[in-house]
Amino acid sequence: MAVSFIHHPAFDANFDPRHRFPMSKFSRLAEILVEDGVVGPAGYHVPAPALPGWLRLAHDPRYVDQVLFAAVPSATEKAIGFRVDEKVAMRSRCATGGTVLAARLALAEGLACNTAGGSHHAGREAGAGFSVFNDVAVAACVLLADGDAARILVVDCDVHQGDGTARIFAAEPRVFTLSIHAERNYPAEKARSDLDVGLPDGLGDEAYLAALGEALDASFVSSRPDLVFYNAGVDPHRDDRLGRLSLTDTGLAERDRRVIGFFRERGVAVAAVIGGGYSRDIEALARRHSILHRVAKEFA
Q1: Active site residue ranges
Q2: Is the pLDDT of residue 234 over 90?
């Protein structure tokens, strides 16, 4: 089985290095994967920007137009955490296109990984929490609309609840949402996923992996998916600036191994996105994100 990796130079919108959102992690991650031989001579699959029609499947058309025409209200930009200019709009379209491409490659090959994606706080009406478009929600809607998938499971292991995804699919029985997160972390007002696993502050590798195993079993029985979107956020790491859990590099790798392995052993396609991760040390952060792609390569 081949493992496909997706990247687009536009994933990095070149923010000021002092910005709270570590935008340069995307370009550094792509460089590291090539430097370390995780991505071979064939290189990356390069996605096309998400079509406006795709975006409108998961988001209010008015909000989509506001993003595409750089007319997002200041209150919404404040909720997102940065200005949504033309460069950010293109970055968000390309990241979403990357997740759509990852899903299609996963259905064809078994497993594919984006080097962006996981913007799970964006809801139907607007963005929030560093999330402009909810790439996983858009990709799931596209595949359902095209008839490429009939049952989808979202496994969200970012340290923050996938509230936007949960709300978008609250009335959609074909999509099952699982969120494993720090209960006391952002957002303050939680949504209701199909299965929420709220974890206490400071939880370490062993207890986390035990909770993960139970959640995977329960969500699989309930959803019986033909495709899984896996949000492999690294913000549960003990050194993350915005996390409240205490996973190690080894714990993150084992988490990724268990999630991917669980579904591949059952013949279910997995499309992975990198999710959240926050540090001023971009080199350390990008290498932490690369754990996902290194583990995925084990399944080739």
Answers
A1: 121
A2: yes
